[in-house]
Amino acid sequence: MAVIGKGTANEVLEPLAETVGRRLAEARAIVVCGGLGGVMEAAARGAHGVDGEVIGILPGEDPGEANPHVTHVVATGIGHARNLAVVASADAVIAIGGEWGTLAEMAFARRLGRPVVALRSWQVSGEGTMAGAPGIEVASSAMALAGNSD
Question: How high is the mean pLDDT of the chain?
Fold first, then answer.
């Protein structure tokens, strides 16, 4: 499962991402992320904190750039193009917050047929067959990801 989002987290997004990472690891999912800071680091910290596996796909060439919670590092050296590798490496994607890179990852994920859950993230729409942003579900909380409410 890929967790994507803003490279700098705030007091709302960080605990949300950490909870998502932890819950995914508890469900025995491998967490795939961009391997750097912000939402990526918080999700990795949550997963690693319960002995989960985290794959960090870095934009640069230096594996040492990965946050300390990543258990497997892929240093690509391809910059933003690594966004495609992040979402292509997962069965589904959870977007938490985000900026332009997150929006691109969501689009790549949908193009590849991967379902996307948006948690305090982009809400997109279109016309015709794209009306309602098919394949993108909006969640209100980390608990809502599992069908629970909080």
Answer: 93
Q: Which domain holds residue 133?
A: 2-146
Higher-confidence position of 142 and 22: 22
Residues 6+ apart with CB under 8 A from 66: 35, 36, 56, 58, 73, 75
User: Does residue 132 contact residue 41 with C-beta atoms inside 8 Å?
Assistant: no
User: Which phi and psi (to 5°) does residue 136 adopt?
Assistant: -115, 120
**Residue 133 belongs to domain with CATH number:** 3.40.50.450
Reported residue count of the chain is 150
Q: Kindly state the average pLDDT of the residues 13-35.
A: 97
Number of structural domains (the chain) is 1
What are the residues facing 33 on neighbouring strands?
56
pLDDT band, residue 56 (cuts 50/70/90):
very high
